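Fold Annotation — chain and its backbone

Fields — amino acid sequence, structure tokens

___
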Amino acid sequence: MSVVFVLIIIGILVASVFLVAFIWAVRSGQFDDSYTPSVRILFDDPVSSKENQGDLQKDKPQEKQSIKS
């Protein structure tokens, strides 16, 4: 039974070491994204729906109206 308590204490110590290491890495800027801003300029901006509808009207072929006699 005493082995269970020792393992729980060791587990808590290991978890706390990982928590401290994670907090230290976040505060030191380890997870700051330096790659995405340099590549973001290469991607197109999404087209808004108003602009998209205007483009669709231009690209849409005109339907011929039949002349009724």
